[in-house]
Design a protein that fits this description.
heterodimer; A: alpha+beta; 36% strand; B: alpha+beta; 10-stranded mixed β-sheet; 7-stranded mixed β-sheet; 13 helices; 25% helix; globular
Chain lengths: 461, 543
């Protein structure tokens, strides 16, 4: 039996199926206003460890969220039971909660029907992946690792998603998209060397597993017998994944409301926001463009607003903060409609023309970082985070990578990093979530920056 | 409003049809003397039992040597407020089936929310097909440790008041009143508060004849208060870490006394604005259980997971410094002789409590660290055989400690930590005793920022409140404090430990591990401790 013949039967809801399901829900609704959000997903994953598949999983689900409002009283409920009784119950639950809820002074009426640009994040290649194809892709990593006498571990994930929003004013939005990520960590059997490589794409079949294997194997070998160096401030060359690990943290801090309220990095000392202020190096431009083929992302937000390309930082200057519908109305501006959060997201940082070799060549004494790990907030006032280097950290001396070094903990902010830039390389799509999930589209350049703050040494390999 | 699975299975036409088919099939198979893995009796709902029987049957027919299946109805409720406003009221439920199979030593897993008989049986065949695709040449086959089969029974969380029976108005009123109480301090500008409840009713069956039904309940009330300085140059927050999430019912919310505590939390947030920035250096740290549970979680519980030590989590959660097993079991010095750590899934009200794990095993209580020496890992049925030679030498049975868990029906189960707790010392010290015995130090209350490396050596922790100790007394508040540790040194530097009276359960709702990342909920029992000469940094920087 061919395994994919089984998976091929499962697929996400079509536009017509989603619309018909939404209409069934709306027909049951008695509230003044009702919104329905439908998420249909088919997910597949294959894990491998010690050079063989360890576990895998395939699951299918369809969930329905109902948001009901009586006047300005709001409640919501969700279910994955799609028969009439299940839908009736989820509508009833949402309406019951709404009736019991106090008036919401920040309530905004549902949107009228909107026009949406078609999304570009769908790949038939990902949608037709099955466990057999996934296992074959994984073998392109485990076999060379085994042949090299090394130990590979890793994860391949595919997500096929259809998302729809409908409301009682006749708004309907539908999109379907795919995403995938393949990451691997290759270690020496004695645990003294470790190398990582990873990639993400809307089309899983475009990921070159053999190339990832080669990179991780090379890093594992080169990282053996790492030497300790003193913690302190170093010039660093960060690979695109490491840049993504840090720069994506800015998008979590970019809300206009918290800036206006005085509890954000984007609050101007004395009051107001940093809109229009230069906060980082003038070579830094940070954009969320869900319609760019490089960074496909959601075409609408969780309340049905069409998304648009947004420039957060242009030539170092804050151009936009993220205004939701309520805060936009309160401040008398247009809501941002940014492709962040709901349904994934997209983020691209402009780069330069330097090759990795050129970035390294400009360093007298510094560090080359493959990726960061366990990145957690320390101080929201400066977007300061802590975390550690991992799976490929090397010393650069006189413009050359000379030897592996032990991992280091940093306490640093992407804002400080982007103020200390020396040079930028060509941007590329990265898998920069720590968990290796098929997350948002993130495109980042490698960079060289001075004065990166490492505060302690780690023995971890 | 509450409902049970039987009611809604009956009310659900499609599911009811599937279940009727399942029941017919079970009866027909029984008459024909075919493969019936479960009698349609004992715990839980007969319709669910029948569906599970069909699924196991389909898995075996397709070639599985072992299979287990879980049907779960999981309900959650969220109530979010901000100042005088309700930000969200949401009831969520998800219902589905996950089936795991073993074919020639390789796992397969498939899950579906479509519970019609055909679809459920198809998931079983899909899992078998996947296991066959996963078989590689020369692999080490999965071997399961023996466990008594034919487990039958039901288990229910230690919850006195089912949170789903409490009117939503009461929950909203309590949170808004707590917010008002906090905002009596005018500098406490922003207040959020929330309640989260989970009720997971799951039935598990396997081809060893086990059939068990369990009801997991978890409750988390919380508040977060932000104070902003008048010149907009500083802001500080205080989270309600005095109240930890628990595997209890609504009584946990009531006992948390949010309204009564909120003014103090607000005052503390405001005090942090004018607290003295810490001077970097080495200090004796006195750590409160509301803080220490997280350090135990990160720097004891995670590195003693066997899958990490064996390299199975190397690509995300990481490996462990407690490695390799044959060289560290019974010999590795993890900390001072005062350090005794135990795993369990039976402390009443704890987040990891259950009657059976997701392998169908009754979890045991087991020592992880005894008098400072590492003596055992957390294990599942698949993992225990890896330690066979140690267990035989130590005259311990080769058995799983019952640490198998999946976050939902849609996810495959694997090794997750149980409750991992620091046992009280023999002397009956309490928090104040540790402070008065300390000449120069910092007392830390509540968990804050946290980060640790992939082998669990180097960690950094913040907190909620920091107090300077001089001459056995608290002399003032500090801010921007974080401490950095090397795990065995930190536990080796522990020279005082609280007694039974000061024991409490802290807990993590979102313990993450695995790919795809799954969330686990665990409690960590602990007492206050003192650690000599720990490295403290100042995290405040100017932008």
């Amino acid at each position: 039996m061919r395994p994919h013949s089984l998976l091929a039967e499962a697929s996400v809801l079509s536009r017509d199926e989603a619309e018909s399901l939404a209409k069934r829900v709306l027909a049951l609704a008695k509230a003044d206003e009702t919104r329905v959000i439908i998420t249909s997903s088919v997910r597949g994953n294959t894990r491998f460890a010690v050079n063989q598949v360890s576990t895998a999983g395939d699951n299918t689900d369809v969930s329905v969220v109902v948001r009901a409002a009586f006047g300005t009283r709001v409640g919501s409920a969700s279910t994955n039971r799609l028969d009439d009784a299940g839908l009736r119950q989820v509508v009833d639950s949402a309406e019951r909660l709404a009736r019991l809820s106090p008036e919401d002074p920040e309530y905004l009426p549902e949107l009228e029907p909107q026009q949406y640009r078609p999304g570009i994040g769908w790949s038939d290649g990902t949608a037709s992946m099955d466990p057999g194809i996934r296992a074959a892709m994984v073998n392109r990593i485990t076999e060379p690792a085994r042949a090299a006498g090394l130990v590979s571990t890793g994860y391949l994930e595919t997500r096929v998603t259809a998302q729809a929003i409908a409301n009682s004013k006749g708004l309907f939005a539908y999109e379907r998209y795919t995403s995938s990520a393949l990451t691997t960590t290759v270690r020496t059997p004695d645990g003294m060397g470790s190398g990582w490589a990873g990639a993400a794409a809307a089309d899983a079949t475009s990921i070159d597993a053999a190339a990832l294997a080669a990179r991780a194997i090379e890093k594992a070998r080169r990282s053996v017998n790492a030497v300790a160096i003193e913690p302190g401030r170093y010039t660093v060359v960060l690979e695109p994944t490491a840049v993504g690990n840090l720069v994506q943290l800015i998008s979590g801090a970019i809300g206009a409301r918290s800036a206006d309220e005085g509890r954000s990095f984007f609050t101007k000392p004395g009051g107001g926001t940093k809109l229009g202020m230069k906060i980082v190096d003038e070579r830094v431009t940070l954009v969320s463009d869900p319609f760019s083929p490089e960074t496909p992302g959601p075409t609408f937000t969780g309340d049905g607003l069409p998304t648009a390309p947004v420039t957060w930082i242009e030539n170092g200057v804050v151009k936009n903060l993220n205004y939701d519908r309520y805060w936009a109305k309160k401040q008398g501006v247009a809501p941002t409609g940014a492709a962040v959060g709901f349904g994934g997201g997209s983020l691209r940082m402009a780069g330069g023309t330097s090759s990795m070799d050129e970035l390294v060549a400009g360093v007298q004494r510094g560090l080359l970082v493959t990726r960061f790990w366990y990145i957690r907030p320390v101080d929201q006032r400066t977007i300061l985070y802590t975390g550690l280097t991992r799976d490929g950290t090397f010393l650069i001396e006189n413009g050359r990578v000379t030897r592996p070094v032990k991992n280091l903990r940093f306490n640093e902010s992407p804002i400080f990093l982007l103020n200390n830039l020396e040079a930028l390389g060509r941007p590329e799509r990265v898998s920069s979530s720590e968990s290796g999930n098929a997350g948002p589209s993130i495109v980042m350049p490698p960079v060289r920056a001075r004065e990166f703050s490492f505060t302690s040494l780690s023995e971890a390999v | 409003m509450s409902f049970n699975r039987r009611d809604f299975l009956r009310s659900t036409s499609a599911a009811a049809a599937g279940v009727a088919l399942a029941a017919n099939r079970v009866e027909a198979a029984a008459r024909a003397g075919g493969l019936v893995t479960l009698p349609p009796a004992s715990p839980g709902d007969p319709a669910v039992n029948a569906l599970l029987a069909t699924v196991l049957d389909a898995a075996r027919s397709a070639g599985a040597q072992y299979a287990d299946a879980r049907v779960s109805l999981s309900r959650t409720q969220n109530v979010f407020t901000r100042e005088k406003r309700v930000q969200g009221l949401a009831d969520n439920e998800t219902f589905g089936l996950g089936v795991r199979v073993l074919v020639d030593g390789a796992w397969g897993f498939a899950a579906t929310s479509d519970l019609r008989t055909d679809s459920a049986a198809r998931a079983a065949r899909q899992a078998v097909a996947q296991a066959k695709a996963n078989k590689g040449a020369g692999r080490r086959p999965v071997e399961l440790a023996p466990t008594p089969g034919n487990q039958r029974g039901t288990w229910r969380a230690d919850a006195k008041i089912d949170p789903f029976t409490v009117p939503i108005e009461d929950k909203v009123a309590l949170l808004l009143e707590a917010n008002t109480a906090a905002m009596k301090n005018p500098q406490a500008r922003f207040v959020t508060s929330s309640m989260f409840f989970l009720k997971d009713e799951k039935t598990y069956a396997n081809t060893d004849g086990t059939l068990v039904e369990q009801t997991i309940i978890r409750t988390q009330p919380s508040m977060n208060i932000t104070a902003v300085s008048k010149d907009f140059r500083d802001f500080q927050t205080r989270q309600s870490t005095d109240i930890q999430p628990m595997g209890r019912g609504y009584e946990h919310v009531l006992e948390g006394k949010l309204v009564e505590n909120a003014p103090r939390w607000a005052d503390e947030a405001v005090q942090k604005l004018s607290a003295k920035p810490v001077e970097v250096g080495r200090y004796d740290l006195v750590l409160h259980p509301t803080h220490l549970w997280l350090t135990i979680h990160e720097a004891i519980a995670h590195p003693t997971e066997l899958d990490r030590a064996l390299g199975f989590e190397a690509n995300y959660a990481g490996t462990s410094f407690v490695f390799p097993p044959e060289k560290v079991l019974g010999t590795l010095k993890f900390g001072s002789p005062l350090l005794n750590v135990r795993g369990d899934r039976n402390q009443p009200g704890s987040l990891a409590a259950c009657g059976w794990d997701d392998d169908g095993v009754v979890p045991d209580e087991f020592d992880i660290i005894k008098n400072g020496i590492f003596v055992d890992y957390q294990t599942t049925r698949e993992q225990a055989p890896y330690l066979e030679s140690y267990y035989k030498k130590a005259k311990k049975p080769v058995r799983s400690h019952g640490c198998s868990y999946a976050q939902s029906w849609a996810d495959v189960q694997f090794q997750r930590m149980p409750n991992v707790s620091l046992l009280p010392g023999s002397k009956d010290y309490v928090w104040e005793d540790l402070i008065s015995a300390t000449d120069r130090g910092i007392a830390i209350i509540g968990d804050g920022s946290f980060s640790i490396d992939q082998q669990r050596y180097n960690a950094q922790f913040g907190g909620q409140l920091f107090y300077e100790i001089k001459g056995g007394k608290i002399v003032g508040m500090l801010k921007d404090v974080a401490y950095q540790i090397r795990t065995p040194d930190f536990w080796g530097a522990m020279d005082m430990i609280g007694g039974k009276r000061s024991y409490m359960l802290g807990g993590a709702f979102g313990d993450g591990k695995g790919q795809p990342a799954q969330s686990n909920a665990v409690s960590h029992g602990c007492v206050p401790t003192r650690h000599k000469q720990i490295n403290v940094i100042n995290t405040g920087r100017q932008s």
